[in-house]
Amino acid sequence: MGRPLRIIFPLAVFSSAFAPPPRDAKPAAARPREAAVLAVLDRELDARRSGWFWRSRLVQRPESEGGRVVPDIRPTCGNSMGGNVKAAQALDLAAKLGAAFGAKCVLDVDEKLLPIMDGDTFTPLAAVAVEAVARLNAASDGEDVDLSLLATGSMDVWPLPKAREFAGGVARFETAKMVRFECRPDAPGAGAAKRARTFERDGALRPTAGHVALLFVPIYPTTDLAGTGMPTLSIRVVQGGVTATATSAMVWLPSSFDARQSFTVEVDFGPGVWTFGEQLLATAPDR
To answer: Which of 8, 38, 223, 231, by CA, is between 20 and 30 Å from 61?
Structure first.
């Protein structure tokens, strides 16, 4: 197979100029604990089963009720409840996060508080991760890891570029292809919004520097060319000297990344049929 076809979107709302990383952001080498936690989250949380994350909230119950962090999911007609995440899986995730800290994570798990909605295991396990990491921060010396943006009610939003390859929301690539586009804070339609089933713009983009963030790139594999499997995908998000990678539409962004600044997204598509959404989303502070 030859080299992938390279496409760069020359749209007016995007720019090749990079904003410098935030001055207070530490280089990745100075945050080994955060890097280890992100590696666990990328490996253990199934981004293909994350359909409710952007339409729900992770909330902390009162200390009188145990202080659990739980998904606030409100089923509607036509949705399917698929049981609950098993305690063993939640405890295994907590143990792996503890290993990233070099500590033991003590966590009580109530399966009834971790619903699986429409096959989404990502959202309840994200709630487990938020609580486990908060407890590990409190019990451990040294570097803290900030997952607080996973539990806010806000997100940053950018439009996916309108390009011929994405026309109609579906594309068939006969060979491997690389697409590159750039997101700027002044792009028309970019801004903050409330996390909900429908997004309403709520001001300018909000900074994420100092916090781990999660970016959703709305690209979905439909089928490979044979119609018997799924094509492969890899994503790189680049801002100055910071690079985050993923093999799915959900990309974990380190605390040295600031979504309020310009960044570039590079997507390597395997041959196959792909479906595209309309907006990129990232977890963001409430205010």
So the answer is: 38
Q: If you search the block for the tokens 């590079």, which residue do you land on? A: 266
Separation of alpha carbons 137 and 185, rounded Å: 32
Residue stretches of the chain with pLDDT short of 50: 1-25
Map tokens 């994503």 to a residue.
235
What one-character DSSP code corresponds to residue 12? T
CA angle (269 as vertex; 226, 178 as ends), nearest 5: 140
pLDDT tens by residue, 128-175? 999 999 999 999 999 999 999 999 999 999 998 766 666 568 899 999
Closest Cα partner for 231 from 270, 287, 176, 277?
270
For 184-199, give one letter per residue: b (16+ CB within 10 A) or e: bbebeebbbbebeeeb
